[in-house]
Design brief:
- By secondary structure, the protein is α/β, with parallel strands linked by helices.
- The chain is built from six helices and four strands.
- The chain has a single domain, classed as Rhodanese-like domain (Oxidized Rhodanese, domain 1), CATH 3.40.250.10.
Length: 102
């Protein structure tokens, strides 16, 4: 499944290895969506708040794998983080990103 996502989004990045090396899983769905179900190790910062949380995210000092419901918002979040010099990858749907840490 991860291989399919990587091909779909044009990435050969091994997200499993990045996650297992300590990357932060960042769920960018709304708080309400997050409360309905989320990965056990994920953090939640809604996409609309990413720009205001750049310094907080930078202090994590780790790569970030973004996720959401389908991969659309997480792609935007990864792009924003990358533009601020933060190593970030689109992990797609939250269930897929959560599976990276198992």
């Amino acid at each position: 499944m991860i291989g399919f996502i990587n091909k779909m989004f044009g990435s050969n990045t091994d997200l499993t290895a990045i996650a297992q090396d300590g990357a932060i899983i960042l769920d960018v769905r709304t708080v309400g969506e997050y409360q309905q179900g989320h990965g056990k190790s994920s953090k939640n910062i809604p996409l609309q708040q990413i720009e205001t949380k750049i310094e907080t995210i930078r202090k994590w000092n780790k790569p970030v794998i973004t996720c959401c419901a389908s991969g659309m918002r997480s792609a935007g979040a990864a792009k924003i983080l990358n533009s601020h010099g933060i190593e970030a990858y689109n992990g797609g749907a939250w269930q897929t990103a959560d599976a990276l840490t198992r």
